[in-house]
Design goal:
The chain folds into two domains: about 300 residues, no CATH class; about 30 residues, no CATH class. The protein contains twelve helices and 21 strands. Helix content is about 30%, strand content about 25%.
């Protein structure tokens, strides 16, 4: 690889991409630390995801710095994968769909369906294992990968399973593959904020006899008027499970317990960063039926990985968390030893070149793509899954 000048990044070429895919002694990863900003500007309040009982996922470092997860690795993968449903990238992967049910109303037929690219567990998803016409091919592909290290079948059927990681915990193989593309968003040096609200119902406007009758009815049905919108309701404390509530009471020592307060976002004094890593070691561990196919698979998967990693995905993550890209991206090639080297991966020209590379790389594999792209979910098969232990459950103690 030609070394660039002092501050000049490596110019991407087909030969360099080939080398990343083929050379077992080549670089170990590509990495980007991407700075993000709230659309409201630097210092804006953002809302991380909330998790049952714990609220926000905030870690405190030894120096007291608090770091919040803004978007997890799994969530980021689920945001990147669907780009392959749309042009110009849809031609690069098989567009398999599963019909969940059909509904006819007023002589109109409506089909509820999901793309394989939308499923959280990809080709190992429960919906896949409940689709009788799809599961034989998936099971065969996982067996080939487990028994012979041959990723060819899965690469032709569901390549993004190899791209974003998959665990066949519901099938017979138990095969698990790491992510080739890993992304996560964190906010540094955060301070949690809290919210409070008051819902004012029509209660005060009702006649006394109406109030009394509603109170009697609510008591008889063992429900609360506020839950039905018929009484005023303050929103000061968040709901948690009964088990957690025993440990996190609403008040402690006469003061509101912050662990139970309604969450109001976080204020980040430090940077909000998205870190993306393309794992070239994991890529070069993937093989095919022979040497020629192994090269084809690795180059194809690397082209998909580079497209996914460099795409400007939407960063409207949830209500109250709308982010944007702050600067130009500065990608680095990480060698086995020594310091990283800058590489040009951020321009529109490079994205077009990556698409052209991928269109060539997919050609030899496209011949073996599945002919049947639409499958039907079977409720009977889904019920069978309920009686079958998964690898995750078998590993529980």
């Amino acid at each position: 690889m030609t070394e660039p000048g002092a501050n000049e990044p490596i110019k991407l070429t087909k030969e360099i991409i080939d080398q990343w895919a083929d050379d077992v002694k080549g670089p170990v990863a590509l990495h980007l630390k991407q700075k993000l900003l709230p659309v409201e500007g630097d210092g804006g309040v953002i809302f991380p995801p909330t998790y049952a009982d714990i609220g926000y996922n905030i870690d405190e470092l030894s120096d007291g710095t608090k770091v919040a997860t803004i978007d997890s690795v799994g969530s980021q993968a689920n945001r990147m994968e669907p780009i392959f449903k749309y042009e110009p990238y849809s031609a690069l992967v098989p567009q398999i769909e599963i019909e969940l049910y059909t509904k006819e109303d007023d002589s109109k037929k409506y089909v509820e369906k999901r793309s394989l690219l939308d499923l959280a567990h990809r080709s190992a998803d429960a919906v896949v294992y409940s689709s009788p016409t799809l599961v034989p091919d998936v099971a065969k592909a996982f067996r080939a990968l487990k028994q012979r290290g041959d990723a060819g079948l899965l690469c032709r059927l569901a390549p993004t399973s190899l791209l974003f990681g998959v665990w066949d915990s519901r099938g017979g193989s138990g095969e698990k593959r790491p992510r080739l593309v890993r992304s996560i968003i964190r906010a540094w040096d955060v301070q949690p904020l809290y919210a409070a609200a008051q819902f004012n119902s029509v209660w005060k406007a009702l006649a006394p006899e109406q109030q009394a009758e509603l109170e009697r009815e609510a008591k008889a049905r063992k429900t609360k008027l506020s839950e039905k919108g018929l009484a005023d309701a303050p929103a000061t404390f968040r709901k948690v499970s009964q088990t957690a509530a025993k440990q996190m009471q609403e008040f402690r020592n006469g003061s509101p317990n912050l662990e139970r307060r309604v969450l109001g976002g976080v204020l980040a004094s430090g940077p909000i960063e998205r870190e993306i890593t393309v794992n070239l070691v994991a890529l070069r561990a993937i093989g095919g039926a022979n040497g020629k196919e192994t090269i084809e698979i690795r180059r194809y998967l690397l082209s998909l990985a580079l497209i996914a990693a460099t795409a400007d995905i939407d960063l409207y993550l949830r209500e109250g968390c709308h982010l944007r890209f702050a600067d130009e991206d500065a990608w680095e090639v990480v060698p086995r030893r020594g310091g990283p080297t800058a590489v040009s991966l951020a321009s529109e020209t490079v994205r077009n070149e990556l698409l052209e590379y991928a269109e060539v790389a997919v050609a030899p594999l496209k011949v073996g793509w599945p002919k049947m792209l639409v499958h039907k979910f079977d409720l009977k098969e889904a019920k069978k899954l309920l009686a079958k232990k998964t690898e995750e459950e078998e590993g529980e103690t």
